[in-house]
Amino acid sequence: MDDTAVDFAVAAWREDNLWQLVTLPPRASESLDLMIDALRAQPGETGTIGFVSIAEELFIILRVRGEDVRLLISDVFAAEDWPLGVDALDRLGIPEEVEFEDSEPAGDLRIVDDLGIGPEEIELLLDDPDMWPDEVLASIAARIGFGEQFDAALEQLPD
């Protein structure tokens, strides 16, 4: 994972009303297309959610339901520095020549609205300067209902 600086990538989905969660192999985070393919491989009732943390600087949330792909980038400024971040910016149609001077999110702030976390709450989490990307994702996972599985998955990752 060093080439892409991905800290971790996980997929979560509901099956028989229970949340399932797996860590994704490093190859899944080599490109956004590979990540989408890995998420499509899961049998989620409400689609599959992917959480990716990159270089402890930013995160990407993906939501895949069939052909529908939704995306949220926590920090467009930081995304420009990482291959997966650039793929995500391209997918959102944000041209490379746009210069960002500050951290701001891009994409769908309503990505998990139907699961109980609206855009206002996501913005509050993103605006908290004391939270690292993995902490924001852990908070979102807990509020959706798979926080314990998320924490357990991260504990199993090599240092």
| Helix-strand makeup class | alpha+beta
Could you give the distance between the termini? 12 Å
Order of helices and strands: EEHEEEHHEHHH
Bulk shape: globular
Domain tally: 1
Contiguous runs where pLDDT drops below 50 for at least 5 residues? none
Strand content: 15-25%
The average pLDDT value, as a whole number, equals 89
Number of helical regions: 6
Rg, Å, rounded: 14 Å
List keywords for this structure.
159 residues, alpha+beta, six-stranded antiparallel beta sheet, 6 helices, 6 strands, 25% strand, globular
Written overview of the protein:
The protein is an alpha+beta fold. It has one domain (6-155). The protein contains 6 helices and 6 strands; from the N terminus they run E-E-H-E-E-E-H-H-E-H-H-H. It has helices spanning 32-40, 76-79, 83-92, 119-127, 133-144, 147-155; strands at residues 6-15, 18-23, 48-54, 58-65, 68-73, 106-107. It has a 6-stranded antiparallel β-sheet with strand order 2-1-3-4-5-6, sandwiched between helices. A hairpin with a 3-residue loop joins strand 3 (48-54) and strand 4 (58-65). The longest helix has 12 residues, at 133-144. It is globular. The N and C termini lie close together (12 Å). The mean pLDDT is 89. This is tRNA adenosine deaminase-associated protein. InterPro entries: tRNA_Adeno_NH3ase_assoc_put.
Brief characterization of the structure:
The protein is of the alpha+beta class. It is built from 6 helices and 6 strands.
